[in-house]
UniProtKB/TrEMBL annotation, chains A, B:
This is Aspartate-semialdehyde dehydrogenase. PANTHER family: ASPARTATE-SEMIALDEHYDE DEHYDROGENASE, DEHYDROGENASE, PUTATIVE-RELATED. Pfam families: Semialdhyde_dh, Semialdhyde_dhC. Phosphate binds at residue 102.
């Protein structure tokens, strides 16, 4: 029997995440029958390669989604808000990588290792969580299942690629300038649309996305709210401090957790994570083995190490969680959702 | 009346911290009558400038300390262990920047803003705390005094200069290589004397100093144990995750605290820190004002921002603490201790 093939659209195909989406569809040998690449007017006409063939990128408009089965969106929240409903109207299932619909009650927010079953109640749009949230919940869910979970405090070490291709170029150009003793003129980071911009080369910027009234940034609130929604734990205590560091790709997280069960050891946590889906345990201090961003780039997994019990609190542990923010944090999680939709028979 | 002037020795004068000690003595107009610069045999013969004069660096030996009033040590733990007692024997007060004596019961571990009075019971050697500890306790002590302090969880973002001048050169050389698409051969970081070395350029390494049996690194245990000793709080709950990032100088820290008092607001914390000694409050999210390492280099203060109340816990707060690790974290805190010794009449 011939395998069913799907008409897939990628919206924002020329961006840092969009390029990874196209590459991931190819790498995973996703059953693509037809691939439609969409972008802004500005990028339309560019050519991208998929399975050895050149595909011309078209300007996205409502009619672009005629006949599309699955539409992967990663072109910013306003594009998603305008075009995702148009895609759904034309029969596509949308997997949206922006924050536009994530907290809407009728939109499932999905990390397949954690809550794949939430796909069953979708209403056309499925939201892909924030990059820093995804890798954290992949590491926390197996611990929750085994030992319960009460509290999470995370400090992030986030790569510039999370802010797009321009931010990568800015880090490289600034790094060269600083090394040559030349002045830098920040224009993109921390937030392109915010008023002030700061040097990222050889610096750490404790702002990702804009500030809310409560002193937290939107990035921090995404980690807090999305974690509770994905894990179905409105009562979970979550706090986040999100920091941009001069890394090209690969987000790292220092995570403190309090679990429900008494008498659990660090080895118990390691045993659970060793067999957890999507997780690679890299934890051997005696051999200086722990995850680092440069090692995780290009890989789909979430890498966890530095697992140790808190010295004061029997039910508290510390972890170090690293993953490629463009892959598991974005493109791969989106394609993985599409694979789950096929596996569960939701898209036919 | 003419001011009393002191014979000061700097041991490890040619190192990253030693150079800053000499510069800080000059900048502070410290009452130096004579300055003796000491180093290993390898660096002996080098010349350094102090107040416009050239001083030749000599190889450190027990006799080097004859007539010295105050000896600032920053040449590694083994040098301190061998020579600090020799300096004391010859009448000098030693201010030691290594970890050699920090946790010894008869050695005060001092951050002047926090526990200056501990200088009164010294026995010849005074220990300067670990860089990442100093800046944190300067920020926490005024909060403790006002509202009590129960628990601290810190994740650090530490600069390479804390690992010495060679580590700075390694970061610069690796950064150039990566930008040019050339391979890198790590030789210094994370820990020169450890077996494996990893790329620091465009990376984050969750190891500073070697690992202990309990899974924490020595750097993390320094933050835990030294904080309790400096603050006279053996019961304080402290946990640390220490991470090296590609920043040249300036350590940053994401700090979660739980205080004792109920009903305290983030504004209350800010009000306390605004007037705290050694602290500069940089906290205005509406204007994107927060501390960053590139802004703190060359300054003596500890910069605090991103102060906000935890969303789940009435007595919990989050802070972002940044300081120049070579100055307040090392050279300036040592010179400041020397100034306190004079002010308190301990050295005459």
């Amino acid at each position: 029997m011939e395998q069913r093939r799907f008409h897939v659209a990628v919206v924002g195909a020329t961006g840092a995440v969009g390029q990874q989406m196209v590459q991931t569809l190819e790498n995973r040998n996703f059953p693509v029958g037809k691939l439609t690449l969409l972008s802004s007017e500005r990028s339309a006409g560019k050519k991208m390669r998929f399975r050895g063939e050149e595909i011309e990128v078209q300007a996205a408009k409502p009619e672009s989604f005629e006949g599309v089965d699955i539409a992967l969106f990663s072109a910013g929240g306003s594009v998603s808000k305008a075009l995702a409903p148009e895609a759904v109207k034309r029969g596509a299932i949308v997997i949206d990588n922006t924050s536009a619909f994530r907290m809407e009650e009728n939109v499932p927010l999905v990390v397949p290792e954690v809550n794949e079953n939430d796909l069953t109640w979708h209403n056309g749009i499925i939201a892909n969580p924030n990059c820093s949230t995804i890798q954290m919940v992949v590491a926390l869910e197996p611990i929750r299942q085994a030992f319960g979970l009460k509290k999470v405090i995370v400090s992030t070490y986030q790569a510039v690629s999370g802010a797009g291709a321009q931010a990568i170029e800015e880090l490289k150009a600034q790094s060269k300038a600083v090394l040559n003793g030349e002045p830098v003129t920040p224009e993109i980071l921390p937030v392109k649309s915010d008023r002030k911009h700061y040097q990222i080369a050889f610096n750490a910027i404790p702002q990702i996305d804009k500030f809310q009234e409560n002193g937290f940034t939107f990035e921090e609130m995404k980690m807090i709210n999305e974690t509770k929604k994905i894990m179905h734990m409105p009562e979970l205590q979550v706090a986040a401090t999100c920091v941009r560091i001069p890394v090209i790709s690969g987000h790292s997280e220092s995570v403190y957790i309090e679990i429900e069960k008494d008498g659990v050891s660090a080895d118990d946590i390691k045993a659970v994570l060793k067999d957890a889906p999507g997780v690679i345990l890299q934890d051997d201090p005696s051999e200086q083995v722990y995850p680092m961003p440069v090692d995780c780039v290009g890989k789909y997994d979430v890498f966890v190490g530095r697992i140790r019990k808190d010295l004061d609190h029997d039910r508290a542990f510390h972890l170090w969680v690293v993953s490629d923010n463009l892959l598991k944090g974005a493109a791969w999680n989106s394609v993985q959702i599409a694979e789950s939709l096929i596996k569960l028979g939701i898209v036919k």
